[in-house]
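User: tokens in, sequence out, please.
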């Protein structure tokens, strides 16, 4: 028994490490076995150059058989498109197959357990899982990591957004944009735009500035709207 173990260990140590092509071939072989187990009749028909039966679950996908890998893929009208990195014809999988469960588990873990739509959209790039959205939701309902993961929620609104009993523009945000060139007579001058926004009602006041000094900056708003109690810019309150 010990001699057998030593012999096997010697073979393992002397064998070269697997290459990227080895991994791709192994992945293709696993997917191929999964399809043959999930869609045996459909695979035989497609391998014989015949269309799937009208009652097949793959009928609406217009399935095709990949001439290179032998995998069943979703059909389409882009077969002649070349030089595209994104897979145009995803591999068809059954939602109830154990391989599909492993794929959903891997994508859900790699994406740190987001919502089901995110996991499903990432899977859809390479794999077309029949009733895949339900498979992802079923997995996440039973996934302990998803259930015990941190609950992400939006932060509480600041006080400036909650002045419900104050007049408009009591709490105001301000920002400038420009400059813009305008024609005055025969010369051109610079002008800037300024935007004031009520942080509670979301009302907006727009105005035009002749220059960027402090007096012009403030008077553009105060003359018409009065002095705000709070004035915020991108770096904080003024």
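Assistant: Sequence out:
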């Amino acid at each position: 028994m010990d001699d057998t173990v030593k012999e096997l260990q010697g073979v393992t140590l002397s064998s070269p490490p697997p290459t990227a092509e080895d991994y791709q071939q192994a992945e293709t072989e696993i997917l191929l076995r999964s399809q043959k187990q999930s869609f045996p009749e459909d695979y035989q028909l497609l391998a014989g150059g015949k269309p799937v039966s009208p009652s097949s679950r793959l009928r609406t996908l217009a399935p095709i058989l990949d001439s290179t890998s032998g995998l069943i893929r979703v059909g389409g009208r882009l077969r002649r498109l070349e030089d595209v990195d994104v897979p145009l014809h995803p591999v068809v999988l059954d939602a109830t197959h154990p391989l599909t469960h492993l794929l959903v588990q891997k994508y859900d873990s790699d994406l740190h357990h987001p919502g089901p739509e995110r996991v499903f959209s990432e899977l859809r790039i390479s794999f077309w899982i029949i009733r895949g959205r339900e498979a992802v939701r079923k997995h996440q309902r039973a996934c302990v990591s998803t259930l015990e993961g941190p609950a992400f929620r939006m932060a509480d609104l600041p006080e400036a957004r909650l002045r419900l009993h104050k007049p408009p523009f009591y709490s105001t945000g301000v920002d400038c944009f420009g400059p813009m060139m305008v024609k005055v007579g025969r010369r051109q001058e610079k002008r800037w735009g300024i935007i004031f926004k009520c942080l509670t009602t979301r009302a907006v006041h727009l105005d035009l500035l002749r220059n960027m000094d402090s007096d012009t900056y403030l008077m553009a708003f105060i003359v018409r709207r009065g002095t705000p109690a709070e004035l915020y810019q991108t770096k904080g309150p003024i």
